Amino acid sequence: MSKQIQAIRGMNDCLPADSGIWQWVENKLRQVVASYGYEELRTPIVESTDLFKRSIGEVTDIVEKEMYTFADRNGDSLTLRPENTASCVRAGNEHGLIYNQQQRIWYMGPMFRHERPQKGRYRQFHQFGIETFGINGPDVDAEVIMLSARLWKEFGISEHVTLELNSLGSNQARAIYRDALVAYLTERKDQLDEDSIRRLESNPLRVLDSKNPEVQAAIHDAPKLIDYLDDESKQHFEALCQKLDALGIQYRINPKLVRGLDYYNRTVFEWVTDSLGAQGTVCAGGRYDGLVEQLGGKASPAVGFAMGIERLVLMLQTLDLTDEVPKPVDVYVTALGESTELYSMKLSEELRDSIEGLRVLMHCGGGNLKKQMKRADKSTASLALVLGESEMQAQQVVVKYLRDDMPQEQINRSDLVAFLNSYFKD
C-alpha cells in the first residue's frame, strides 16, 4: 500500500464543517466594504521577487526568512505573495489606476510565509484588506479606521478589541529619531537579544517591536518617536485623533507601535485583543505615502489595512459568536421507493425555483425510512419532507420537524411553498 500524501505543514484544508463560517465571514466583509463604496481588486498569488524586496525591505524577517521564493523555467525569481499591499500598488501602477486619481479598493485571498505554524499563524493564511490611493488628509485615515470599527460591530466583537495608534512621521523626522534610538540602544547592547542586535544595524525601529521581555525592559525608557515628529505630521496626527474622538472611536496611543514593514509613514494602527493568547493582533495598517513612487509610479498618498481571516474566525469561535452562521441545509427531501425518486427530484427543484435561497438536500442512494431520517438529522436541516408512494399519489407531503418538539404534519403539495415560506420567515 502506497504512503498516504498529507497536506504541507502549516497549509490547512478548510473542511465542510468549517466552510460555513468562512463563507459567512467573507460575505459580511464584502457587505461592509460595499457599503463604503470600495471596489475589489484581484491580484496574482505569484509576483516578481523584486516587488517584495523593494516594498517590504530586504532587512525584514519576511524577506530574509519567510518568503516562498523560487526560480521559474526562465530563471526569473518569483515569490508567492507574503502580503498584498505591494501587489495592489504594482497593479495600480501597471494599469494606470493611481496617478492623479482617487481609488478605494479591497482584496481578499491567500498569502504565504514560511513561519513556525501555531494557533492563528499558518504558512498559507488568508487576508482581507483595503487600500486607498490619492487622498492626503487625515479624513481618509479616519475613514479606514472607521470602516474597520464597523467590521467589529457587525461581528459583535467591538468590546473584545482595542485600537492602538501611533505616528511614524516623515522620513526625515524618522531619520533623526533613528539616530537617537541607535545611540540609546547601543549603550544597552548587552541587554539586547541576537535579533535586536542585528536589527540595530539594519532597522533599529524594529527593536521596539520585540516581544522579548528582556528587550522590552531595555527599551522602556527609550526615546519616543512621537517626540520627534515634524510639524506637518503632528498636525496630521492631531487631526486624526480629533476625528476619531468625534466619531466615538476609542483608542490608545502606543509610542512603540512601528509595524513590521518598511513602507509605512505617519499614521500606523493595530486592533489588538486578549482573546487569542499570543496572537493578539487582529487587524493592522497605516499610511504608506512613498510606496507608489518607490515601485515606479508617480508619487501618490496611500493608506490601508490588512486582517487575517483565520484569526477572525478563531476569535468568533472562541467567543462563541457564530449563531448567525447559516446552516448548510434547510430542508431534507426523502424518497421512499424507486417510483418516488423522480418525483422527489422534481419537487426539490420546484422548491428551489419558488423560494430564493432555500437550501434543499435531496436523499440519494435509497434505503428505508429510518436510514433516510438518520441522514436527514445529520444534515442539520430543520425539516424533513417524507415522500412515499401514497403521498405521491395523493399529492401530499409529510413534514417532520427535526429541531422542534412538534408533531409531524401532512400538507398538500400545492400548499407546501406557502408553508415553507411562513416557517422560515418566522
Could you walk me through the main structural features you see in this protein, from its secondary elements to its overall organization?
Helix 1 runs antiparallel to helix 5 and helix 5 packs parallel to helix 9. The strands form 3 sheets. An 8-stranded mixed beta sheet has the order 1-5-6-11-10-9-7-8. A 5-stranded mixed beta sheet has the order 13-12-14-15-16, sandwiched between helices. It has helices spanning 16-35, 49-56, 61-66, 85-94, 138-155, 171-186, 194-202, 213-218, 231-247, 291-294, 309-318, 341-354, 369-378, 389-394, 416-425, and strands at residues 39-40, 46-48, 68-71, 77-80, 103-112, 124-133, 162-167, 252-253, 265-272, 281-287, 302-308, 331-333, 360-362, 383-386, 396-401, 409-412. Helix content is 38%, strand content 19%. The longest helix has 20 residues, at 16-35. It has 426 residues and is of the alpha+beta class. It is built from 15 helices and 16 strands. The two termini are 54 Å apart.
Instruction: Write down how many β-strands occur, each being a DSSP E stretch of 2 or more residues.
Output: 16
- Helix content range of the residues, please? 25-40%
The biggest beta sheet is recorded as: 8 strands, mixed
Mean pLDDT: 90
Q: Which structural category do the helix and sheet elements fall into?
A: alpha+beta
Radius of gyration (Å): 27 Å
Report the uncertain regions: none
Distance between the termini: 54 Å
**General shape:** elongated
* Strand arrangement, major sheet: 1-5-6-11-10-9-7-8
Q: What is the number of helical segments per DSSP (H or I, 4+ residues)?
A: 15
Strand content: 15-25%
